[in-house]
């Protein structure tokens, strides 16, 4: 009995470490499932295949993201960038326990096995999605493969984020709206395309502040992204430009008739908070505070898109 009693806390600690390694508590990307479901035409809304496709896609996406961040941590511990970026000076806003390799809760080998296992899980789930989806076009299947491979290679293997691709690949969360919607309907409406773009941009408007905060550690690690290749002044202008992409995307969508003008009214409260985010990060240099506000805005944007889908279908 004493052995079982002793083993239980160890097992719980190990499980907790793997949960943190895979960032399984970070649910923001998976909220895309609700946006997809709310955008579907009435005939598909309550269909059993619809729920199967959405749930399996998100289950697979959990594996893809877990593999991405786990293998990113493996690279970060090996090149020392995580140790520098999670220094005591930033500890108030960056919890060291979120990095189980840094804290010693897991070994590099354990993290690698977890990462490859998560990738295999994602591949199996997405294969099932493609098989049961009503509209399984070849180009969508190839897009799913591209997302899987590129995400796992984000900081591991090809190290896309180390070789000029960090900002580009971080818009891929938007495809978590576009891909399942097309798998279910065989088409992409103007509103769904805009929502996919916005969802990806919201992810970028979180990471872009992290990149600026981590610039020195990333330079030493050899990571080549916009933050490490430009001056601080130039990168601040890039951040402002990234913020402007959001209203620009909406303006273009309205101009081509993809969405109604009333979509702007839904976005105004979010844009007001974006000004606060930019002021905090760009104006005041509170980069991690701006990052946290970006996370909140990503979550607050989901009900905005849900409302847009309901209005588009029923008004």
Order of SSEs, N→C?
Answer: HHHHHHHHHHHHHHHH
Helix/strand-derived class? mainly alpha
Percentage of residues in helical conformation: over 70%
- Report strand %: under 5%
Query: What's the quaternary structure here?
Result: single chain
**Count of helices?**
16
Outline:
The chain is mainly α and 315 residues long.
Structural descriptors:
mainly alpha; 16 helices
What would you note in describing this structure?
By secondary structure, the chain is mainly alpha-helical. 75% of the residues lie in helices and 0% in strands. α2 (32-39) runs parallel beside α16, α4 (48-79) packs antiparallel against α10 and α11 packs antiparallel against α16 (287-314). The longest helix has 32 residues, at 48-79.
Topology of this protein?
Layout: H1 2-21, H2 32-39, H3 42-45, H4 48-79, H5 81-85, H6 100-103, H7 108-132, H8 138-152, H9 166-169, H10 175-185, H11 190-213, H12 215-221, H13 226-229, H14 232-255, H15 263-283, H16 287-314
